[in-house]
Design a protein that fits this description.
alpha+beta; 2 domains; 9-stranded antiparallel sheet; 12 helices; 9 strands; globular; disordered N terminus
């Protein structure tokens, strides 16, 4: 994003001469020291250049493991180039103490700043033998892997069961609606909702899991994990020059996604503009998460023609019907009635667009010998009422894909703007 600036040292911590926070050793520097045997000062100064990918992650075309700036006008992890792995967690606030919640959000922000910079939380994974370490340690020796952490606030943070626990009811944005029930939904309450969400994306699953684990540890006594989802194999891209990934059905979907470098499109469809709701959301975005179960076994026994008719594009190339290349402009009228591309394309929806950041998932079996697998769908938009809701209503009513999928989890969050400088914290304008 154009507004991003290089991350500074951990806010609130003194800085050592090497440029690393005292007590927060860089994982990237550790790799540099081990691999090259260089002096401490030189390793710290060149830690980004010394970072390497883990074994197996160095395939041709793989993204370099560089830090994505934490400080920005907008939260990273939205328009940022999509990483390959996800750990998404929704939390319930278990305390009624506003001060305790504010302190946790401040501590979370400090931890997020150091983890996205490839460093250890607090005094690190080692310290006093008589006390638990500040960092759980499973990411020691690993680079940042382009880790991003994105936070959002759910409707129940503002009011839950009619109770305004933290004095926030009047600050709830009108756009942060309780999502309507769509046809064919079979939502599991245990996999839906949440007071606060954190989206951790990285190119290494261990780095993403480490981030959520440490935030959960910091929040103990204030929040509990309500549900979480691991994701692999991004199914959409914010970099249009790259090839669109495939979902578990073997198809490319979301080719016409918003580019992370298209400032005009982001301003029109993703970022909340001044005057649109409360000031604390200006520059933020609204996130809808949907856990979509795929009926893999049924799909795998379906003819190729039926599969292509369902999506409205060819399986091998991903080209729209009657076209040759994936990014050829589709002839929507030439597509089968009810095909997914025909219904979801902006030209069929008065130009509305959402920014997609989906991931595949597999979670064992459903107990009946079938794969528990599908798409963990993440959509960012300027106003959910004008984007995801009308689009999903159209898809739920007549999408031929509905025969092979079912929405089983759902949540909605207001994601505030980015942290612009050290000392600021997630939710500062909301709680101020």
């Amino acid at each position: 994003m154009n507004a991003e600036t290089p991350s500074a040292a951990d806010p609130g911590q003194p800085t050592a001469p090497s440029g690393e926070p005292q007590g927060g050793v860089s994982r990237r520097a550790v790799i540099g020291w081990a691999g090259a045997g260089v002096a401490l000062g030189a390793a710290a100064a060149g830690s980004v250049a010394a970072a390497t990918l883990r074994d197996g992650d160095s395939a041709p075309g793989a993204a370099p493991s560089v830090d994505i700036p934490f400080y920005s006008d907008h939260q990273s992890g939205i328009a940022t180039p999509v990483q390959d792995r996800l750990h998404f967690a929704a939390f319930d606030v278990t305390t009624g103490n506003r001060d305790a919640l504010v302190k946790m959000l401040k501590d979370w922000t400090k931890a997020a700043a150091v983890m996205t910079g490839g460093r250890e939380v607090g005094s690190g994974a080692t310290g006093l033998a008589e006390a638990p370490p500040d960092d759980t340690g499973e990411a020691l020796g690993l680079p940042s892997s382009r880790l991003t952490l994105t936070v959002g606030f759910g409707p129940t943070l503002f009011e839950k069961d009619g109770v305004d626990r933290f004095g926030l009811r009047a600050k709830r944005p009108e756009a942060l609606i309780d999502l309507p029930k769509f046809p064919h939904d079979n939502l599991d309450p245990a996999r839906s909702g949440g007071d606060i969400c954190v989206q951790a994306c990285a190119d290494d699953p261990q780095v993403a899991v480490h981030a959520i684990r440490n935030l959960a540890r910091i929040g103990m006594g204030v929040v509990n994990v309500r549900w979480s989802q691991l994701g692999f194999g991004k199914t959409s891209s914010t970099t249009p020059e790259a090839q669109t990934p495939r979902n578990l059905m073997g198809f490319k979907d979301g080719t016409h996604n918003i580019s992370g470098t298209d400032a005009d499109a982001l301003g029109k469809h993703v970022w909340v503009a001044p005057g649109e709701g409360p000031e604390w959301m200006t520059g933020g975005s609204y996130l809808v998460s949907r856990r979509i179960r795929m009926h893999i076994e049924t799909w795998d026994r379906t003819s190729l023609k039926e599969q292509e008719d369902v999506f409205g594009r060819t399986k091998r190339e991903g080209a729209p019907y009657t076209k040759q290349q994936e990014r050829d402009a589709p002839d929507l009228g030439a597509m089968p009635e009810g095909s997914h591309v025909r219904l979801a394309h902006p030209d069929s929806n008065d130009g509305l667009m959402i920014l997609r950041r989906g991931f595949s998932f597999t979670d064992g079996t459903d107990g009946l010998g079938r794969l528990e697998a599908g798409l963990f769908f993440l959509a960012y938009q300027r106003d959910t009422r004008k984007a995801f809701v009308p689009l999903q209503q159209r898809l739920a009513a007549s999408d031929r894909l509905n025969e092979y999928i079912q929405h089983v989890g759902s949540a909605h969050f207001a994601c505030p703007p980015g942290i612009r400088k050290p000392g600021e914290w997630w939710g500062q304008a909301l709680f101020g």
